[in-house]
Amino acid sequence: MTRVRANRLYGAVELLILRSIDRHGPLHGLDIARAIATGSDATIQIEEGTLYPALHRMQKRGVLRGEWQKSDKGRRARVYDLTAEGRAELANELDSWVRHTAAIRQVLDIPEEEVS
Amino acid sequence: MKDKRTPLPWRPSRDEIDEEILHHMRGRIDDLVRAGRSREDAEREVRQRFGNPGSVRKQTERVYAPERGSFFGTLVSEIVGAARSLRHRPAFALTAILLVAVGIGATTVMLAVVDAYLLRGMPFPHAERLAWINETPPQNERVRSRPAEVNWREADDVGLAVSWDRDAFTLLGDGPPQTVSGVWVPPDFFEAFGITTAMGRSFAPDEIGPNAAPVAIISHDLWQTRFGGAEDVLGHTIRMYASDRPDDAQALTVIGVLAADWWHMYESTQILTPLGSHDHPTYVVRIETGVEMHEAAQRMTAFARQSWGPEFSDWNVELSPMHEQHVEEVRPLLQTLGAGVSLVLLIACANVAVLFLVQAVGRTREFALRAALGAARSRLALRLVAEAAVVGLAGAVVGALISSQVLAVLGSAIEVRLGASVPGGTTALALQPRVLLVSIGITGVVTLLFGLAPLLAGIGGNLSGTLTGSGRSSTGTARHRTLRTGLIVLEVALSVALLVGAGLTMRSAIHLSNVELGFQPEGLIRMGFGMSSVRYPSAAEWHQRIEETVTAFREVPGVESVAAANPGAFSFAANLVTAVDGPMAESDTRLRAAVRYIGVDYLETLDIQQLDGRDFATSDNVDNEPVALVSDEFAATMWPGEDPMGKEIRIADPMGDGSPTQRRVVGVVGDTRESLTGERELPDAYIPLAQVPFPYVFLTVRAQVAPETLMPTLEQIVWNDDPEQPLNRPGLLQRVIDDAAATPQALARLLTVFASFGALLAVVGVYGVIAFAARQRRRELAVRVALGAARNDVLQIVLGHGARVVAVGLALGLFGAWFMAQTLASQIYGVSPTDPITFGGVATMLGLVALGAVLIPARKAAATDPMSLLRED
Which of B10, B26, B57 sits opposite A59 (nearest CB)? Predict the structure, then answer.
């Protein structure tokens, strides 16, 4: 049970990251966390212990490209953007997520209004 | 471009991950503050949210886990990181490297010299079995006379006794006459010292004594310079005469050439030839294997007492290891220099440690971050040590290069200044692997100290407080301050000790160059003048020949006056003089005096003061009454409170049968010195040369013009009369005296260089630390000013802090200087090791300079506008 949830969250975090960058353009880690928090009305608070390993893992896999940039306050921040592979993965995952959640929802038999 | 290559998987450094996470944390705190939370609250919340912040980094790093290395990999990555980090701070890195290089360079030179002189020993096989033979009277006994020489060759249960006789040989033929140093040796000399020839053979056992074929072995150097390195030098005949037998030129057949690196205590020995007989004083014994040195000494004492007879039954034979005796005089010099170099190294290290400490404070936040992110203290220590190692390694490499250059260029100068030849020759001073190894060891220790100083000071410890402070600088922990201040105190103290050492040797050197010699050495030429007993068989004839030469010299334009004497000025002379009347006559003691046999005009030529009575005249010869002159001190010692004029003394006649001649004192003259250092100084007595003619005299010439220009003319006059007349050691008396002062002066110069360097570093260190502390406290000081403190109060606070540091350093330093001075005591002359002028002068000077260094940051701190500071950040 726990394992399944962890797996789901794991997949979801990567998808959330991909999608946030896709929507807002290149972002650093904090802005990704902010974007996810704002986008979910503060429902999803992504943990840093999850976020950073994910960013680095994705970077290593080649779906993200990280780059050091000077922020407006003069501090260095590592800003992430999608690679071509990243875009392809986002499309795939988004599609599979929608189908997946629809299937689950169907199984769980949850009415629409209870979700939001 | 980048995209064309197969992209290598990007691998962030630990620093980069940390930076990314810190950026995140800061942003979070800012968000919360913007949302109306207090900063403290926000910081706590973010820390809580991050839980154990290190785990974030750890989890992130785990992404790259397969690539994470072993301990060695960690070490390499830390060293690479350290080198990169140092490259961003070039001023710091270069200063630190240079300081280490100077410290290690000086230390390595010193180690090489100590190794060559004191540790490596003599370059002979089983040199530890070679010992000098010293016949010593019982302690506290006045020497009446010395026992006769013992024929050690007959003491067969001890070992091989070796004798030799150093001499000057004048080579004739094969070019202009050339005087070289040579040595008469027994055939087993080669066996005793384990010497072999590079070409030809060594002496056969029967090649000794009057009937043996005259043979010679020459040095590689002489073979090259005089015989052009010709292969057929073996069998070549050299014509030469020895210094004491100028009439007796010999033809020697060259049978061997020594190796180029041959060495036998006396540099520049060019010719070896067999002794005329075995009856020559023995100096060194090669003790048989299996016999202990003390055993050998006992056996030799027993053997000698038999030979000496009952009169000397309480004398002993002592053996001193050859190496020990050779370096006896050098040892204290090297100890002093070694102490000086160690102090320089310590000061340099203290300075580098301070640099590292100050740097570390500037990087407190970096360390705090790494610590907060879970870096183990050991990992931080590793980074600090890695940085120190990079600095230490670079410094050691530069230092080793410097030292090898110094040894190559100054090796022979070092040898001359130390006053004893390097065992094994000058080349033995080159950098040896074992010396390098010790240097590397020292560098290692030093490096650990630099690296760990910040950790000892508590940096990298409890730092979470500094992590979130947005630029509010910490003043460093108390431990850090203490360590920093302690290091500066140490530096000041060490340089005081060095400066006092330098000051004492300097004053000693000045004293030596101002020693009242009792005569004027400037413009004096001195040359040894030997008489051939074949051409001048009688004393009257020697005397006439000397007189003629003196007269001929006087007529040379530019010559002011000329006199003959034996021995000459500034060379050792000793004889026992008995007073015939007066208090000294009643006791059976005799006065040991420097007795010189002088020709007319000697006092005038040397400019010795006449205090009473008359000078010698030409009429003071063998036909008239034996007379003498004595010096002031002689008179005061021999006849205290009495008038010395007309007193009678007895002096043994060295040229006759040794029986004493009674002489009347006809004049009193000023005291003279025969050494600068005052050792062996004796009261003077003078006897007319015409009454005791010597076959060997020193001619002393006072020149009105530059003395060097006269020397060829004078030599020509001598050789015109007799082309084979030996003239030994013609030279300037002033140079002889300068040479005598050279070693103490070189010591003074070296210590002064060390001390100046040390003091400079100490002052810079004082300035740096006080300026740093003032900068660290500037907010506090600004607040004080803002709250109404006068500028002068700020000045006082900073100045007071600096003054305390300097004062403690000075106090400790004077204490240390006292120890330094004790090691110097045997090498300083005319100045007490506790000389108050030196101690006081050094303390005042360094104190003032250091306070000057404190004043600059203090004024700067007082002059800063408080508001601009408080607005900062």
Answer: B10
Q: What do you get for the CA distance between the two ends of chain B, in Å?
A: 42
Looking at the structure, do residues B745 and B697 belong to the same domain, yes or no? no
Q: Is the ipTM of this complex over 0.85?
A: no
Residue B269 lies in a domain: yes
**In chain A, which residues have their Cβ closer than 8 Å to the Cβ of B20?**
28-29, 52, 77-78
Residue with tokens 């009242």: B516
Containing structural domain, residue B262: 127-326
Nearest chain B CA: its distance from A7 CA (Å): 16
Provide the CB-side half-sphere exposure for B428 (13 A, CA).
20
From A111's Cα to the closest Cα of chain B, the distance in A is: 34
What distance in Å separates the CA atoms of residue B708 and residue B525, rounded to the nearest whole number?
Answer: 8
Domain residue limits at A37: 2-114
pLDDT (tens digit per residue) in B287-331: 888 888 888 888 888 888 888 887 778 888 888 888 888 888 888
CB within 8 Å: A76 and B19? yes
Sort B34 into a burial class: Cβ within 10 Å, 0-12 / 13-18 / 19+: exposed
Sign of torsion over alpha carbons B520, B525, B531, B535 = negative
Q: Judge if B681 and B741 occupy the same domain.
A: no
State the nearest Cα–Cα gap between B816 and chain A, in angstroms: 51
Q: Which of A48, A57, A60 sits opposite B24 (nearest CB)?
A: A48
- Cα radius of gyration (chain A): 15
Min CA distance, A108 vs chain B (Å)? Answer: 33
CA atoms of B168 and B528, how far apart (whole Å): 12
| Residue at which a domain ends, from B326, B353, B380 | B326
Who among B23, B59, B64 is closest to A77 (CB)?
B23
Q: Chain A partners of B16 at a C-beta cutoff of 8 Å? A: 68, 78
Asked if residue B208 lies in contact with residue B187, where contact means CB atoms within 8 angstroms, the answer is yes
Least confident of B6-10, B96-100, B486-490: B6-10
Q: Which residue of B has its CA nearest to A66?
A: B10
Q: Count how many domains chain B has.
A: 4
Assess whether B639 and B708 both reside in one domain. yes
pLDDT in tens, B769-805: 777 777 777 777 777 777 777 778 878 888 888 888 8
Cβ separation A76–B7 shorter than 8 A: no
Residue B349 belongs to a domain: no
Is the confidence at residue B589, as pLDDT, over 70?
A: no
What is the rounded distance in angstroms from the CA atom of residue B100 to the CA atom of residue B446? 9
Find residues 31-60 of chain A whose CB sits inside 8 Å of chain B: 33-34, 48-49, 52-53, 55-57, 59-60
Tell me which of A52, A55, A57, A69 to substitute to probe the interface with B (most B C-beta atoms closer than 10 Å). A52
Count the domains in chain A.
1
pLDDT grade for A1, boundaries at 50, 70 and 90: very low
Hey, what are B831's tokens? 């100045």
- Number of A/B CB contacts below 8 angstroms equals 59
Question: Cα(A113)–Cα(A105) distance, rounded to whole angstroms?
Answer: 12
